[in-house]
Design goal:
294 residues; ABC transporter involved in vitamin B12 uptake, BtuC; two-stranded antiparallel ribbon; 11 helices; 2 strands; 74% helix; globular
């Protein structure tokens, strides 16, 4: 019985961490589908969202919900700036210059925040004012509950937005074929800008949610981004549902391995899982195997 309770506790924790990876991975996938480029600054969106929340809530003393909304608005503005400052000038170039541009932007953002905020990690209060609840011997931390509920709500919203709204369908059309979308009168540049805004907001939400658990620090974005990118590949590169499932799976694998194998090497298990997927199923969970003609 104790073994079952212990593993249920680990499963709950793993799903909480995996939800953060899933949100950032979802941002990865949206940018990939819109621009055919991997945005290596996606993890830094989470870092900036966390620091924006610390600034508004701790620094300026705003009420929690107002600070949260302020952080999301700040990330939306940053998404616009990132699109027109990093992607847009290179939009007609091959994927490599854009990829290098996002990598350079990541380095620039980390060093800028380091200069402004300093190297010390910043604490952030939980959304709820109680520690958590215990069910059947499993302690459900309140912040992990918030993370899981928020992730489910965001995934559901994303599904409804892309499948049931005209704007969502325009975004899908843009991601599938930009030239055809232009011929149909869809403003492709605006659609890509909206995708960057939404990805930045998703990253910001992930940073705010994980801040009370991991603290808000300069390096948090890089760690989350690496695991989210691994989740993107495991789920199926460019597949939305694959990003979500891959993120959750990675969080569970990491937590179980840390508990039953070794805690100091917990960050390595995600990449071991990635290596095994690349070895035995390189197309990912939901990806389709594509063969090339000779």
């Amino acid at each position: 019985m104790q073994f079952v309770t212990e593993n249920l506790q680990i499963l709950f924790t793993g799903l909480g961490l995996g939800s953060i990876y899933a949100l950032v991975a979802l941002g990865f996938v949206l940018i990939i589908r819109a621009t055919n480029v991997v945005n290596f600054a996606q993890g830094d969106f989470a870092m900036l969202g966390g620091y924006a929340m610390v600034l508004f809530f701790t620094g300026l003393g705003w009420p929690y919900w107002i600070a949260f909304i302020g952080a999301l608005l700040a990330m939306a503005v940053f998404g616009v700036l990132f699109n027109y400052g990093v992607y847009y000038p290179l939009r007609h170039r091959s994927f490599l210059p854009v990829l290098i541009s996002t990598l350079g932007a990541s380095i620039f953002l980390q060093n800028t925040v380091l200069y402004v905020a300093g190297p010390q990690p910043k604490p952030l209060d939980k959304l709820l004012n109680f520690d958590g609840i215990t069910l059947g011997g499993v302690f459900l931390d309140s912040q992990y509950i918030v993370i899981l509920v928020a992730t489910v709500a965001l995934v559901f919203f994303t599904f409804l937005f892309f499948e049931k709204t005209l704007l969502g369908k325009k975004l899908q059309a843009t991601s599938q074929d930009k030239d055809m979308a232009r011929l149909l009168g869809i403003p492709v540049a605006l659609m890509i800008a909206i995708t960057f805004i939404y990805s930045a907001v998703l990253g910001g939400i992930a940073g705010v949610l994980v801040g009370p658990i991991l603290f808000v620090s300069i390096g948090m974005g890089s760690i989350i981004a690496l695991k989210a990118f691994a989740a993107t590949i495991i789920g199926g590169f460019g597949d939305v549902k694959g990003a979500i499932v891959g993120g959750l799976l990675l969080g569970v694998i990491e937590s179980l391995a840390a508990q039953h194998i070794s805690v100091p090497y917990k960050d390595a298990y995600a990449f071991l899982a990635l290596f095994l997927f690349l070895l035995f199923r390189p197309q990912g969970i939901f990806g389709e195997k594509v063969s090339e003609k000779a």
